[in-house]
Amino acid sequence: MDGTLFRSVNKFFIIAFCLDIKSYKSFMHRPDSFFLATKMAAPLTLLLIVAVTIRAVLFRSSLAELISARVEVVSPLNAWKRVVEGLALLDLGVSPYSGDVFHETPLMIYLFHFTVDYAEIVFIVTDGITALALYLSIQTYNKDVFRKQKYALESDRYSADCLELLRSPKEMFYIPLKVAMFYLLNPFTILSCVAKSTCGLNNAIIALFIFCTLKGSALLSGILLALATYQSIYPLTLFAPALLFFLQRLYIPVNLRRSSFWFFTLQYAFMYVGSLVVITGLSFFLLGSWDFIPSVYGFIFSVPDLTPNIGLFWYFFAEMFEHFRLFFSCVFQINVFFYTIPLSIKLKEHPVFLIFMQIAIISIFKSYPTVGDVALYMAFLPAWSHLYRFLRNIFLVSCVLLACSALFPVLWHLWIYAGSANSNFYYAITLLFNFGQILLVADYFYAYLRREHHLTHGLYLKKKDGTEATLVLK
Amino acid sequence: MGLLSDPNRRKALTGLLTRLNTPICIVCYLAGIVWFMGLAFEPFTLRTYMSENAMGSTMVEERFSSGERALSLAKEFDAHKRKAGGMPVEWLVKAMQSRGLEVFTQSFSRKLPFPDENKERYMVRGTNVYGILRAPRAPRTEALVITAPCSPGNTNNQAVALLLALAQYFRNQIYWAKDIIFLVNEHDLIGTQAWLEGYHHTNITGMEYSPLQGRAGSIQAALSLELSSDVITSLDLVLEGLNGQLPNLDLANLFYAFCQKLGVLCTIQGKLQRNDWDTAEGYTHAAQTMMLMVLKQACGRSWGDHGLFLRYHIEAASVRGINSFRHYKTDATTIGRLLEGMVRKLNNLLERLHQSYFFYLLPSLSRFVSIGYYMPAFGLLAVILLLRVSFPGLCHCFSVSLQPSSPGVLTVLTPVVISHLTGVALYLLPVHLQEMAVEHFPVSETEAVVLTAIAIYTAGLALPHNTQRLLSGEGTEQGWKVLKLTALLYLAVLLGCTALINFSLGFILAVTLVPITASITPHMPKALYAVVMVLLSPAFTILYCVFIYQELIEAPVSVSEGWMLFLSVISQGILDHALYGSLVYPLLALFIYPCWLMFWNILFWN
């Protein structure tokens, strides 16, 4: 008796909610949506101005030199000093890859060959583009999410008591702006930009890839993914979420026995591999040699440079006996790629969240991570702000990440300048930092799955004996 | 991980922490203090031992015998010093050359930001003289330094003379594998700083100096010698360097080993070692010695010429001769032998001193407390801050502050920014405004600087009332909780970083700041808590340290003398920052004080 009453009341609320949604939709599709655009454009412009000002001021201050020497901010792969060295070698007519200093890709060196005098502007603009791409992607994604939620509500697929889990247009309105803000005003991004780390450019390519994917352009998405892979190999794992996204968008079921699935997969793979071949071939013709393959990709895979950074590789490989090196570099590198398979299976309905997970995993486990990589996936956190109620360790994790960020320079000082500490101290903080990151990602993963579970099974779960149940991720 | 992922156990844990929050905090605080005091208790400490193999097994035989000649040299040096009215550069150059060293000089000048009243100097101009004894047995890639400051008056003559006598003796030996540099520096630390910057081609403090003409290899270790009388009763070892940095413990072990071997009384912090650790007096003595070390380390200044070497990765210590009223006297020959032995052992080094500890406290020369033993004392204090952060009300605030519609961010940002601006003012204004202050008030430059600093510090206390006016709305309950959360986290990170670099400073600040910051809310009796907060503020902490230090070195001072000392400590702190790059003043002004102001803001939240 009570149950039916409860259900009917709930039904009423859901209908009311849908009405609200409809009014919102009509608002969104009003012909004069110019009004809306200006409403969001003003804060976005303001944000861009603030971000550019901060960067410009820092570029002019004496801090820039200090920052560009920090191992947390630049790695051997993307240090500006090395780019300059490569350019000098190129100007002298020597292969920039001779001498084991330069590890950028040929396209990158030609980009800076023409823009080296405006490098600071290039980096600032790149950050702006990244933020804009993220902004537009999340806006598209939110519309998409909202549409799906509406259909699910109308077809009664959600459990009755999960009304409070539904997302409202009001709370989603500012999320794209917050994403842009998280990227542009994140100290990690600012540091990375001021150090002129080319990591910012890689981030821009990935952000544009996400944007094109979410906009549904398979060709552009394939090209940008190829470009991102060409830059740093690891974005290869983003192939799976992008493919899943397109399949979902085109209503092609993920079924290995269906020809439509294989047709599209091959089509997308062809676009991706084709552009990768074209880009690599172009690089060959630019430099006239294959030097860059061992110097860039060999360098990424075999990890010969053991300069300390915020990653997990350097200490292990510095401590290890030489004859285990091949084995362990395989193990460590497989670690980055391996998670793609289980995550793609688990999250095949949610490719955008999968993209986030993949970017985070790459930035944690890649061979030369910098804080710029961390900044990219952290920018997505506001997009998952509706998961907040299911996060368990967010407070602990934020404390750990904050404390680690402060301790990195302190322990570096004690180790390198004061000589009183040693590499173990620094590595301990590196470990803690990565532990924090892993905990963060795992927490979001758990929260995402849990919300989905509640949406279908109801918010207040009961065990068979009627007591309150708890969900455990296993 | 089970604890973090199992919801039931998590609930139990947070429940426990919430219910027993205050008692746990009090217990932690007391445990931290007791742990710290317990560090001086001998059974809890480790006996020092030589870790470095190259210096351990081979005892050398000391043959230095020209102590008497050194004393006559001292008289000659004294006469020339008087005649030259400062450092007798020419005489020194000649004396070193005649002993077969390669001699070079370096001139330097430095204008202090404001006059140093303790040492009566403002425009400093001087010359360093150094001679290099080239190693006959090795490729001259490494060097050792023996330095003696040339001080005004008739102090330290014996040190310079002994240095020359040692140079003469060392010149005739064939076993040197490292170059030995004999340095006589003028104007104590400023001279050392100029020489070190010249040697390493750096300029971090804006000193003007002429480049060094002669160099040796990379310096492995340095000894600074201070000796003002013909005979001494004991030798004191000084270890505390710039920013609380300490040399490798093996250097102290080496000194102790040779004192034992030659039967010289040795002290640390001017305190002899006692053997009756099981009596109350014995424990008090050890505790006093350790407390002195903590206080000296915390103030972050260099307590001898050796302190500046440490920044360049050079292990260094000062050896100071003390002549008191004891019967048992040691002559110059024995001191010479002691130094000879130490230098020969250092000469045997195959790599830099790195085997032993860099983080330690010494309750006596033969006992030490390593980082693993003293860090828990700090950890127990720091964990209180984290416990208060995890206090449920505050935790809830964190969640609220993440929600989109929270009013918190701006209301919190204002006090944070204003506190830090006050901190920047405290850091910049005193030195920059001295001329204006001198024009308008009848004070000297030094007083002007110190009094401006105190004035800005006090003016900061008026801030909460004004920041409230700047804010549009009323301060909410949410607001202060978010501010407190921010401030607690900030303080915890700040103290943690400080304690890693300079344990003593971090610990002293934690002892005074933690209790009040952990318990502060706006709902307390304002007047009472305002007084308590001010009494536990960073400036008062310095004042207490001055009194405790005077008490410990057995030279207690009256309140007015203590106040004068306090003023001079502040001026010295600012000078140390400007001259040598000591970090205590900027740390206090730019970080600790603003952080404390944030808590002050919470108290006056309305």
From TrEMBL, chain A:
Membrane topology: Multi-pass membrane protein
Keyword vocabulary terms for this entry: Endoplasmic reticulum, GPI-anchor biosynthesis, Membrane, Transmembrane, Transmembrane helix
Localization per record: Endoplasmic reticulum membrane
UniProt cross-references to InterPro entries, sorted A to Z: PIG-U (IPR009600)
Pathway per the UniProt entry: Glycolipid biosynthesis; glycosylphosphatidylinositol-anchor biosynthesis
GO biological process, one term: attachment of GPI anchor to protein
A Gene Ontology cellular-component term: GPI-anchor transamidase complex
Family of this protein: Belongs to the PIGU family.
PANTHER family associated with the record: GPI TRANSAMIDASE COMPONENT PIG-U, PHOSPHATIDYLINOSITOL GLYCAN ANCHOR BIOSYNTHESIS CLASS U PROTEIN
Name used for this protein in its record: Phosphatidylinositol glycan anchor biosynthesis, class U
From TrEMBL, chain B:
Subcellular location: Endoplasmic reticulum membrane
Transmembrane segments: 20-41, 371-389, 409-429, 449-467, 487-516, 528-550, 587-605
Pfam families, A to Z: Gaa1
Cellular compartments per GO CC: GPI-anchor transamidase complex
Example GO BP: attachment of GPI anchor to protein
Keywords for this protein: Disulfide bond, Endoplasmic reticulum, Glycoprotein, GPI-anchor biosynthesis, Membrane, Transmembrane, Transmembrane helix
Pathway connected to this protein: Glycolipid biosynthesis; glycosylphosphatidylinositol-anchor biosynthesis
Main location: endoplasmic reticulum
Highest taxon of the lineage: Eukaryota
Its membrane topology: Multi-pass membrane protein
InterPro entries (UniProt xref): Gaa1 (IPR007246)
Function: Component of the glycosylphosphatidylinositol-anchor (GPI-anchor) transamidase (GPI-T) complex that catalyzes the formation of the linkage between a proprotein and a GPI-anchor and participates in GPI anchored protein biosynthesis. Binds GPI-anchor.
Subunit structure, interactors included: Heteropentamer. Part of the GPI-anchor transamidase complex, consisting of PIGK, PIGT, PIGS, PIGU and GAA1. Interacts with PIGK.
This protein's name: GPI-anchor transamidase component GPAA1
Source organism phylogeny: Eukaryota, Metazoa, Chordata, Craniata, Vertebrata
